[in-house]
Structure formats: C-alpha cells, structure tokens
Amino acid sequence: MSLAVSTAAAGPTARQVWGGVALLAGAVLLWMIFGIWPDWLDWLLGGKKTFVSAVLNGVTLAGLYFLVASGFTLVFGLMRNVNLAHGSLFLLGAYVGYDVATWTGWWALGVAAGALVIAAAGALLQIFVFQRLTGDELRQTLVTIGISIVAADLMLAIWGGKTYQFSIPPMLDGAVSTPIVTAVKSNGQIVTLRYPFYRLVVLAISLVVGAALWLAINKSRFGAMIRAGVDDRGMLAATGVNVRLLFVGVFAIGGFLAGLSGVIGGSALSVAPGEDVRYLMASLVVVIVGGMGSISGAAIGALLIGLAEQLGLVYFPTYGVVLTFVIMVVTLALRPQGIMGNARTRLADPPRPPAPGDIVRVEFTPATAALAAALILFPIVASPFVVFQLGAQTLILGMIALSLTILAGYGGMVSMAQLTVAGVAGYAVAILGANSTGVLGLNWPWELAVPVAILVAGLVSALIGAIAVRTAGIYTLMITLAVGVAFFYLAQQNYTLFNGHSGFRGVAPPNVFGVSWRAPIPFYYLCLAVAALAYAAVVYAARTPFGLALMASRDNPRRSRAVGYDVTWLRIVAFFFAGLIAGAAGVLYVWFNGRISPGTISVAESVGILVIAVIGGMRHPIGPFIGAALYVLIKTFAIDIVGADRFNTLIGAIFLVIVFVSPDGVLGLWRRVQPALRQKSLREA
Amino acid sequence: MGTKAHWVAAAALLSGAAFAPGAGYAADSIKVGLLATLEGPFTVLGQDGVRGAELAFKEANYTAGGKKIEVVKGSSDASPDSAVKAARKLVEQDGVQILIGPLSGDEGLAVKDYAKTQPNVTFINGSSAAQDTTLRDPAPNFFRFSTDGAQWMAGLGDYAYKDKGYKTVVTVAEDYSFPYTQVFGFMADFCKAGGHVPKKFWVPIGNKDFSSVIAALPDKVDAIYVALGGADGVNFLTQYQQAGGAAPLIGGSITADQTVLSSQGKQRDSVMGMPSAGPIADNAEGPAWKKFVDEYKAAFKDGFPTPSLFAHAYYVEAKAMIDALDKVGGDLSGGQAKFRDALAHLEMDTPTGKVKLDKNRNAIADIYLTEVAQASDGHLYNKVVKVIPAVNQTLGIPEADFMKLGVANRDNPNCP
Predict the structure, then answer these.
(1) Which of B205, B212, B231 is closest, CB to CB, to A492?
(2) Are B29-147+286-364 and B151-278+375-404 equal in CATH topology?
(3) Is B151-278+375-404 CATH 3.40.50.2300?
(4) Which residue in the set A313, A386, A599 is minimally distant from B212, CB to CB?
C-alpha cells in the first residue's frame, strides 16, 4: 500500500467560487425580470416596472459607459498614456456630430463625422504632442489636463452654454413593447413593459463595438503587433514594423471610439458643457474598477457602475451618486488592479533616477531674509484690497499647492485630493464652530474647533493616502481625483452634515487679543505666519530621517523595503503631514471666503491647484506660492485684460507652455534665462 | 538654487504692490458696479442681464440725479465664491458706490453677506431669486426689486387644484435650493386648497438621465409638477415621451422657456397646455411690456428674440436705482441715507406692472399665470391666463404663519 499524495485540489478554486456566485446572481436576476412577482417583493422594490426599468436602464447606460471607457482604456492599456482629455474628445465629437447632423439632416452622417473627426484629432495629438513625451508619463498626463482645460473653454466659446438636443431618426425613436410582464390588470389583461428603443440601440452598438475590439486586439495581426509593441517596442521595430505609425493608429482608434460615443451618448442624453468632465470621471471609475487596459474589464466595470447608478437613482436618490465611488474605493481596497486588471499593470515600485520633478534642498540665505522682509512690509505699500484679495489668497492657495508639491516632489505621488482635504478642514470649522446658516454650528471655542479641524484633515488625507498608496504614479493621480469627486458629491447631496449645495455661510475668524482677525491686514499676517510655519516645517522635515527615507522610497521603493523601511507607512505619514498643511490652509480659506460649499472643492478648483503647483515649479517649496501669485493675479484682473470669460483658455495655455517648455515652472524659466545673462556680463567685462 | 527662488518671489511681491486701488470717482459722476455671470455656462444669461441694465441706462442717457453714471462690469461664474470675489473687486478695488447684481440665487445669498460688511455701499439685486436673501436675516443695504422663486409660483397651486382639477400631483425637481423654493411656492397654495403630493422626486444636480425616475412615477397621479430648468426640462420631456408617459405636466418658472418651446419633436405634445407661472410672460398684454420688448429688440441686434427674465430683472433694478437717484438729486452723502430711503419707498411702473418694496426691501410685484399655447404659425408660446397682482414674499399668508412653514428643503412642505 503506498501513501499516494492526492494532487487534485481539495475544494473549489477562488475563480470557480466567484463564477458560481455570478451564475447564481444572474439566475435570480433573470427570474426577477421574467417571472411574476409576489406581493411582498412588489412592496419592497416599489413595483416590478420600477425595478426592471432601472435594471434595463442600468444595462443600457453600461453600454454607453463601456463605449466611452473603451477608448480610454485602450489608449492606456496599449500605450501607457492616461489621456485625461478623453472627455474633451467625447464632447467635441458630440458637438461636431450635432453640427453635421443638423446641417445635412442625416443623423448617421453626424455619427460618422463625429467619430472620424475625433479619430483624426487623436492621431494629430499623438503625432504632435504625445510622441515627444513618450516615457514621461506624468508630463503626458499633465499635458492632457492642460489640453482639456483649453479645449473645454474653447468649446464653450464656440458652442456656448446651450444644451443641444439631437434629432434621432424616427426609426430609432419611441418606445417598443418588450415581452417582460410588469403587471396583471384586474380584468386579466397583461401589461408589458414599454422601453425606449434608442437605449436598446445604444446597447446593441456597444456590444458590437466591444466584440469587434476584442477580436481586433486578440485575434488579429494588428492586435498582435500592438501587444508586441507595448511589451517590447525595440524588438517590434526590429522586425520591420513601423511602430510610430502603429501607435498613431491606436490613438486614432481611441479617438474614433471617443467621438462615436460622444454622438451616440449625446443623442441619448443631450450635449452641454460639463459633459466632458462627467464622462471622463465615469470612464475613470469604470476602468479603475474593471482594470486598466482590459476591454473585458471595461465591460464588467461599466456594467457594475451603470447598474449602481440607475438603481441608486431610484432606491437611494440622495446618495446614489456616491455609490459608484464607494464601489471604486472598495475595489481599490480589495483588489487595486481592478477586477480584470493585470497585477503587472499597477506600475508600482519601479526604480527610477531623480526626476526633474523632485524637490531640491532648500538653504536659508540672505535672499530668504530679504523675501521675509518684503512679505512683512508688503501691507505698508499695498492697498487693503491687494493685501487681502491678492496677498492672503495667494498664501492660502499656495499652501494647498505646497501640500501637493511636497507629496509629488518628496514622495513621488501626485495627489489631486489636497483641495478636498483643505475643504474637509473648512467644513469642520463651519460645523464645529459658528455659522449663520442655521444648520449645525456647535459653537465650539476656536481653540478647540481649529486644531480638531486640522487634525481631521490630516486623518482624512492619511485615509486617502492609504487608499492610493497601493498604486503609484499616474494611478495615484486618478484615484485621488476620483476620491475628490466622491467627496464633492457627498457634500452636495448630504444636508444633515454638509448642508448640501448651499454649504455654510457666515464663518468668520475669532476676535483674539482684541484684534478682529477678519480685517485685511491682521488676516494677511495670520496667513503669512501659518504659511511661514508650513514652509519651515517642510524644509525641516526634508532633512529628518523621515524625509530622507521618504525620498529614498520615491527613488527606489524595492531597495527601501529591502533595507527595512515600511514604504507604505512612510507614504501614509507623508499624506498625513501634507494633510495637516492643507487643513491649516483650509481653515484660513473658509475664513477668507466667509463660506464653504461643494463648489469650493469642485474638480475645476482641484485642477486649478495642480495648475498652480506646476506653473510655479515643483522643484522648490517656494514654487507653489509663486504659482499661486500668478494665478490669483491673472484671475482677478482677467476681466480687465482679456475679458473674464476666456480666463481658462489663458491659464490653460500658460500651463501647457510651462509643461512643455519648462517642466520646472516659472522658476525653471528663470534658471534658464540666467546663464545667458551671466555670460553677457562676462563678455562685457 | 534656493537663493534665486527667493529673489524671484521677492520680485513677484513688489509687483503686487503696484496695484493701487482704482481712482476715486469725480464729484459729478456716480460709479455703479454691474455684476453678472459673464463666464462659464451661464454666460449667455449674464449677458442678457447686462443688456437689461444697459437698456435702463440708455433710456436715462447714462444720467441720474443730474450726475453721470459710470458703469464697471464684474464677472462671476454662478458660484457664490466667485460672486463675492467679483463684488469685492468692484467695491474695494474699483470703488463703486452702488452695486447691481448678482444673477443666481446662491450668489445672491453670498453677496448679501458681503453687503453686511460694506455698509457704505448700496447693493441692489440683479435677478437672484433665493428666498432667504431678504426673508431671513436681511441686510439693511440690500434692495431687491425682483421677486423670489417662491413668489414666482403664486397662484399656480390654486389654479392647478381648482381650475384644472388636479387633486394628486407628484413633483420632480433638482436637489438644491432654487427648486426647493419653487416646489415650496407651488405646494403652499396647492396643499392649502386641498391637494395631495404623495411623493417628491429629488434628482441630483447635473443628472441628465431621468428614465429611471420616470419609470418610478406612480401611475395614479393627476399631474406631474416639473421644476427642471430649460436643458434638463428638454431631457425630461424627451425621455418622458419616449417612455410613453401620459400624465399632464405642470411647469416651474424656468421649465416652459424658449429652449423647451422651440425644440422640435414629439415632446411638444407633452407640453401643450402646460400651466406655469413666473415674473414675465412672452405675450403679456399691456403697452409697457410691448414697448420694453421693442426697445430691447431695437437696441440689441445680438440679443434673444424676446428679453429673458434676466434682462427684465436687471432692467427693473437699474431703473429703480435711476428713479431713486433722480428723486434725491444724486445725493449719496451721509452714508447714502437719503438714497436708500428713496429706494425703500419707491413705487415704480415696470414693463410687468407696479413694483414696490416690503419691509425687508423685497419686491411686491405682479405674477403671470400662463399656459403653453400654439400660435397660428405653429410655434409654441406662453399665453397669459391670469395676472396675480401684488404678490408679496409671504404669498399672501400672514407672516407668522408663513415663517412657521419653515425653510424650504427636501422634506418641507409636506402634504402626502
């Protein structure tokens, strides 16, 4: 008798379990749709018609989301390019399609035009912009952000704030009867569900496109070439393939998908400014949940998100919109690469040499003293308006941007949630202290409310860091952006704690030592003191073992771990520290505005902080303050210079120029100009 | 490296000091700030508001009380933060003595708070229509010659119950302050008359997909009250028609606007006969309105086909300022006391009837009850059914009872 060791698995594998669960869920769902409901189910879910409609709406919306996200994930998966201008391409496709459809009278022509024009746009973008930045992912992403800012504003200028409604051909319009029974009338007549036909058309198109994409990438020669080029570009080029042309083709396909989804989605849900951000965020969440670079992942992610959104709208209308982001956070916590994502694609932990974005060592020199003196004497030479509106605002926004800069420069993590963290502190002060809205305002003394608010901000930032820290580079940017948007929606929808859309008014700094700190000059000095403290703390921390360990983990996480540092913990602590700075700035910001509402922490404002950080220069802690000064100046006086309505084009263009020409912002420009000046004086000597 | 950075920063600082506050005003001119949404998606509305104010200035030849009127424009993007920043620039940098604006409801609340910190400047509303700007905690130097969102709904609930016979109505509106006010105004009348609102559907802001909400609408209602703005209104109607919805609709003040009425397609049928109410009506009878429309069309070739309610509101506010200045001969001395007194007691004739202020400095004005009708050439317009005269902020209800109704929000008022 031999002791044979059984090599067969003792029980079902994880995959089999999940597959079984999915099958079971599918069976239950099918019964719910096609079967007759008992009364208790009717009462629980508000009627079969409601539920089935919501499910169908979710599935058809998922089709649309898949269509939009497919272009996004394709470009990333194959070219490692996070194209945050994808939403702008979507919107442009919709506008172009609308114009063509209205002009020719044929909707189908509009679809074709939208798709083809954006395909061309995508190709042009790849040729003239992204090709030059291959390998530098952060810069590529920043460029796409800049393009999206400028594009959104130009589209607003051309097509205005109107909402455009497509005329769908009558053949596709109207409702059709489905075989789904929703009720049986008292006279025995069966009532079936009538469903908008166009939504089914959208679903059909997305299924066709999805299948075609999957076949093209996995079963065709073209797809094989692309996959090979991603793995090893040099080798592919060596086999005689024109790799450049190939990648232009990929971007063109991505653009085609974006434009196509723009017209099709626009026909379902109308076109207006703001749709670009909306669909970009949807794509972001879909691919984060489904897995970056995976077409099937995009399909699964879209299904989950579409269903969550529609069911949420019916059954939890208040918080349904936050539900999708909750799903995203849970996915990130359990499986950071997404459902169908490849663990390899996380891009975490590659070793890298010091990059241009890294912060340099700061020395305290006579120049520092001169600057300090200038800052202290500033109110004497400037008017109260300038001191308050320009000076204090610059210091506050500069501090928020500083928290972003130190995370990026010292930690290698670009966090788009710093303004959100500042907002958390601002809300905390409004809730814990006094406000004139009549909601909450617990009237805690400021000595208690302010430190608690800042601490809460730090903790929230650490929490965001904990979510984001299992990824790196561009992922961190996307995830922090999505978290920021989630908090925005939460604040907007919740009235018990955040007072929703209106927010809190009448939040003012306290009277301490007999001084009203709301007056322009005292407030300016308060901001100056806090900013100086933050600046000094940053400079000091950079020289501590913590700071050095953080920088080491930025440069080579694997080696740092090998030496014994807990890289995850270092990063979370860095987020906490940055959160404290952002929190302090947030308290000052709510005092500056006298109010806080979701609009203060919207996506546009968060992008503004990134713009400030980049323009000023990310290599030196003074950079964000310089960037903030420029930003505030241009914003305040834009109406006198270019007319207020093109401010975004102006600032976006400056941002783009800076990213292209001088990755180190205004400071970098100055450093470039310097050698030329120095040489001249030598020649003259 | 560090050295240079700090020098650059110091240099940047000195340039900031160069922005001296704007030169003061000459003794024989009055500086007026005009704040509207001139950036972002609401630019078109802000531009029309500016047109309304400019029409009033043009009528008076840019003179009031014997002094010249100097206008400085300020721009916001419909967010309260930007409105306060723009107001601050106008008041503290440009040195305006009177500020007309802002456009949107939430901005109005923020500007009112700012007004309290600037007692030497008189703030006159633009078109912002939030209730609490004047109803609760008003500012003594903030004057509103236009009506608020609840006043706009005066008489509609009563008309829906008694004249149209709708006993049960559900509401669909966006989940924030202005729709709350509109639903409040509708339900104040409707519930008092005996109507029932079994369910209120609050849709998150920016939501374009109403199909699930439409599927959840109860079958047994007499009508659906829709307080969705122009673009969302079109979306709702399209999806409603696509889903085969049959119940008649009642519209909020901005539901039955030109965007909806001029759209093509089958959703026009859902809108025919839809009652609504608001501060203006496209075809109000009365020579004053016709004159206003003709003047607007003549002065602004690039304007809308007819002036929007923003142009009308800004026109009325600017005209109020000019009339009051004329009354006091342009005297803004002594903290503008005489001027503010004149404003508070002003009774003016506007294109839409008589306007005067209540004790909170909010307008008491006429409201138009309308129904969507088809003209002989096929296009849709808002036909005036009734004029509700002299509607005040408490909608005719005694003030104590009205304040007991509480602030308009998701759950208030309630009559299931």
Answers:
(1) B205
(2) yes
(3) yes
(4) A313
DSSP class of residue A564 equals: T
What CA–CA distance (Å, rounded) separates B48 from B38?
Answer: 10
pLDDT band at A348 (very low <50, low <70, confident <90, very high): very low
The pTM of this model reads 0.86
Q: Which of residues 149-178 of A touch B (CB under 8 A)?
A: 156, 160-163, 165, 167, 173-175
Q: Which of B19, B73, B79 comes nearest A386 by C-beta?
A: B19
User: What is the least distance, in Å, from the CA of A57 to any CA of chain B?
Assistant: 7
A193 versus B402: which is more confidently predicted? B402
Beta bridge partners of B353: B350
Q: Do B89 and A389 touch (CB under 8 A)?
A: yes
Q: Which CATH architecture has domain B29-147+286-364?
A: 3-Layer(aba) Sandwich (3.40)
Please list every residue in chain A whose beta carbon sits closer than 8 Å to the beta carbon of residue B13: 371, 374-375, 378, 629
Distance CA(B307)–CA(B291), nearest Å, equals 12
The confidence score (pLDDT) of residue A46 equals 74
- CA distance linking residue B29 with residue B330, whole number of Å: 9
Q: Which of residues 444-503 of A touch B (CB under 8 A)?
A: 489, 492-493, 495, 500-503
Supply B282's token pair. Answer: 């496209």
ipTM over 0.90: no
Which of A46, A163, A597 is opposite residue B231, by nearest beta carbon? A163
Q: Write the residue in A57, A173, A386 that is nearest to B211 by C-beta.
A: A57
Q: Which residues pair with B33 in a beta bridge?
A: B72, B99
Q: Which positions in chain B touch A600 (Cβ < 8 Å)?
A: 81
Whether B10 sits inside 8 A of A371 (CB atoms) is: yes
Domain layout of chain B by residue ranges: 29-147+286-364, 151-278+375-404
Cβ contact, residue pair A382, B16, below 8 Å: yes
**Which pLDDT tens digit goes with each residue over A58-67?**
999 999 999 9
Cβ of A495 and B202 within 8 Å? no
Q: Residues A103-131, buried b or exposed e (16+ Cβ, 10 A)?
A: eeeebeebbbbbbbbbbebbbebbbebbe
Mean pLDDT of B77-91: 90
Q: Is the confidence at residue A175, as pLDDT, over 90?
A: no
Estimate to the nearest angstrom the gap between the alpha carbon of B78 and the chain centroid: 12
Q: How far apart are CA B203 and CA B60, in angstroms?
A: 45
Which residues in chain A have Cβ-Cβ distances shorter than 8 Å to B2?
360-365, 367-368, 620
- pLDDT tens, position by position, B253-298: 888 777 677 766 666 777 888 999 999 887 777 889 999 999 999 9
CA distance A474 to chain B (A): 28
**Which pLDDT belongs to residue A683?**
46
For chain A, list the domains and their CATH numbers: 44-285 (no CATH), 366-677 (1.10.3470)
**A12 — contact with chain B (CB < 8 Å)?**
no
How far away is chain A from the Cα of B325, in angstroms, using its nearest Cα? Answer: 28
CB contact under 8 A, A314 and B212: yes
Residue that the structure tokens 């928020």 belong to:
A400
Amino acid at A306: G
Per DSSP, the three-state class of B220 is coil
The residue written with tokens 């005003």 in the block is: B25
A19 CA: distance to closest CA in chain B (Å) = 29
- pLDDT per residue over B169-220, tens digit each? 999 998 888 889 999 999 988 998 999 999 999 888 777 788 888 888 888 8
Long-range contacts of B17-20 (CB under 8 A, 24+ apart): B17/A378, B17/A381, B17/A382, B17/A386, B19/A382, B19/A383, B19/A385, B19/A386, B19/A390, B19/B93, B20/A383
Lowest mean per-residue pLDDT among A46-55, B186-195, B361-370: A46-55
CA distance A56 to A195: 9
